[in-house]
Specification:
The protein has 117 residues and is mainly β. It contains no helices and 11 strands. The strands form 2 sheets. Strands 2, 4, 5, 6, 9, 10 and 11 form a 7-stranded mixed β-sheet that branches. A 4-stranded antiparallel β-sheet has the order 1-3-8-7, with no helix packed on it.
Length: 117
């Protein structure tokens, strides 16, 4: 069992920055991949970025603006968001994946990010 708690969301103006954090607890040693997803009103949930063994992957819409990082031992993950745009407005969710015994995904409750002038 893994529990995830996100923090760091808020309201910022276009061009501003936010840093999201995800704290994992429970059986964290089995986590293989951690990621950030987001879901805007009226849209499907989409992958923003993920990290596996130090290798990162980003959605085209955030490349060059967002940076994902993590602490392997603690299974904590962060998302530094720069040059924010109104289209980045969404609820951001932390995801942790365990592939042992079959694929299992854990999700946080989400943190709201709003980008508006």
């Amino acid at each position: 069992q893994v529990q995830l708690v996100e923090s760091g969301g808020g309201l910022v103006q276009p061009g501003g920055s936010l840093r999201l954090s995800c704290a994992a607890s429970g059986s964290i040693s089995r986590i293989n991949v951690m990621a950030w997803y987001r879901q805007a009103p009226g849209k499907q949930r989409e992958l923003v970025a993920d990290i596996f063994s130090g290798v990162t992957n980003y959605a085209d819409s955030v490349k060059g603006r967002f940076t994902i990082s993590g602490d392997y031992a603690k299974k904590s993950v962060y998302l530094q968001m720069n040059s924010l745009k109104p289209e980045d407005t969404a609820v951001y969710y932390c995801n942790a994946r365990i592939t042992a015994y079959g694929r299992v995904d854990y999700w946080g409750q989400g943190t709201q990010v709003a980008v508006s002038s």
